[in-house]
Amino acid sequence: MFLSLIVVRVLVSVGVVGVGVVRLIRYWRSL
Question: What are the DSSP calls for 1-26, one per residue?
């Protein structure tokens, strides 16, 4: 159970970071 919880947290954190990177790239392109 602990391993699955850790995997879920890692996937969520990676997804949040990915969204942030995409937003930064779009912001730079708009400039």
Answer: -HHHHHHHHHHHHHHHHHHHHHHHHH
